[in-house]
TrEMBL record:
Protein name as catalogued: F-box domain-containing protein
Biological process, per Gene Ontology: protein polyubiquitination; SCF-dependent proteasomal ubiquitin-dependent protein catabolic process
Gene Ontology, cellular component aspect: SCF ubiquitin ligase complex
Stretches assigned to the F-box domain: 9-53
Membrane-crossing residue ranges in chain numbering: none
Annotated Pfam families: F-box-like (PF12937)
Length: 245
């Protein structure tokens, strides 16, 4: 707080506004609690207009004018009302996932339905960052958000990885298991093939196109089943944790 007050006393107002306008919404709110000067600056329309347009870039000018005129609290009020609206939409996906989970895993059909639900709600990248890439959620919700951003929103992998790291979920792991029909060999069909991969969200985003492909296709053609769950800690990692304690 003292550092923010010192900055206030030593820089012009236009530079202070530029600093506030470059921050994420949580940082804007934190900075606004430092002093009366920062509270007034961080609550101004100049700051919140940028936050609104950066988060919901698909809003048309007509939509923006209509919503700001109907909202007496200006751009900050618009941001809060839109955030609440998106929170309700995101909660419907969370509720669907909770109902679809069976023994802490989800089948590919329901997984892809959750992705389709996200598409229909038209959540953007920043909405996903807020509501799905959080460490207190089931890692499968993290995965749903990650998959939606990469495959359907087309967000570059480096931006997704940055969001994972910022929200402290990049090292969380998921386990993807899939079963393929056994090949035919001299008139006999061999046993079905079982595949299993445990991978971190960061590695999945960065380079693993095979797993993304399995998740995107689901149970089709020769793949008869796909199951997704949180990766179980290995005995080695558990022993390491005990040793640290």
């Amino acid at each position: 707080m003292q550092q923010a007050i010192n900055i206030q006393n030593s820089i012009p107002d236009d530079i202070a506004l530029k600093i506030a306008s470059s921050l994420h919404v949580f940082d804007v709110c934190s900075l606004g609690s430092c002093s009366r000067f920062w509270r007034d600056l961080c609550g101004s329309d100049c700051v919140w207009e940028g936050l609104c347009k950066n988060r919901w870039s698909s809003l048309s000018l007509d939509d923006i004018h209509q919503e700001t005129h109907s909202n007496s609290k200006g751009w900050k009020g618009l941001y809060i009302s839109k955030h609440i609206d998106m929170a309700v939409k995101a909660a419907s996906v969370t509720t669907f996932m909770e109902k679809a989970l069976a023994f802490e895993s989800i089948e590919a059909g329901n997984y892809l339905k959750a992705i389709e639900l996200l598409k229909s709600l038209q959540l953007g990248f920043e909405d996903v960052r807020f509501f799905f890439l959080k460490p207190n959620l089931d890692v499968l919700l993290n995965l749903i958000g990650l998959h939606y951003c990469i495959v359907w929103l087309g967000v570059p992998a480096e931006y997704v990885i940055e969001a994972l790291e910022r929200n402290r979920v990049s090292k969380r792991q998921v386990c993807v298991q899939w079963w393929k029909l056994g090949r035919w060999f001299y008139g006999f069909r061999l046993r079905d093939e079982f595949h299993s991969r445990s991978i971190s969200l960061e590695d999945l985003t960065a380079s693993d196109e095979q797993i993304i492909g399995v998740l995107s296709r689901g149970a089709v053609h020769e793949v008869i089943r796909v199951q997704i769950s949180a990766a179980k800690p290995t005995h080695t990692s558990w022993s390491h944790q005990v040793a640290q304690v």
